[in-house]
Amino acid sequence: MQARTEAGTRIRISWPAGNLTAALDDTPTAQALAQALPLASTARTWGQEVYFDTGVSVAREDGAQQVVEPGTVAFWTDGDAIALPYGPTPVSRGTECRLASPCNVLGRVDGDPHTLATVRDGDPVRVELVADQEPP
């Protein structure tokens, strides 16, 4: 089932206390991730960031960023992981969302990224494509 919009691929990230959807841009990393879906992983938290292993290994792209907006869907190439910052991390300066190292930017979550605050370290996480007919 193909789940593409003008913005690219749409995904759903689910954990025991909730879920959110996100629109991914059409990038090599997003394409590699979409090919690996659905996937199940274990959530880790680092300050106000949730990250989890994907089993996908890609190179850092031109334009990789370390400081991003809350709700950015990023791919941490150093850890083969999706990183979902929603506030400051242990390396942030002030209230910025600073990732551990520059990450490939994949897209943005829909709605309030602070929904991620309900993810607990060790929670099971599932990432899957969103069907075309489903609303965001």
Task: Throw out a few tags for this protein.
136 residues; mainly beta; eleven-stranded antiparallel sheet; disordered N terminus
What does this structure look like?
The protein is mostly beta strands and 136 residues long. The protein is 7% helix and 45% strand. The chain contains 1 helix and 11 strands. Strands 1, 2, 3, 4, 5, 6, 7, 8, 9, 10 and 11 form an 11-stranded antiparallel sheet that branches. The longest helix has 9 residues. The radius of gyration is 13 Å and the shape is globular. The N terminus is likely disordered.
Describe the structure concisely.
This protein has 136 residues and is mainly β.
Low-confidence stretches: 1-7
Bin the helical content: under 10%
Mean pLDDT: 92
Total beta strand runs = 11
Shape: globular
Radius of gyration: 13 Å
Strand content: 35-45%
List the helices and strands and how they pair.
Layout: E1 4-5, E2 8-15, E3 18-24, H1 28-36, E4 39-42, E5 44-45, E6 49-53, E7 65-68, E8 72-76, E9 81-85, E10 97-109, E11 124-129
Antiparallel strand pairs: 1-2, 2-3, 2-11, 3-10, 4-11, 5-6, 6-9, 7-10, 8-9, 8-10
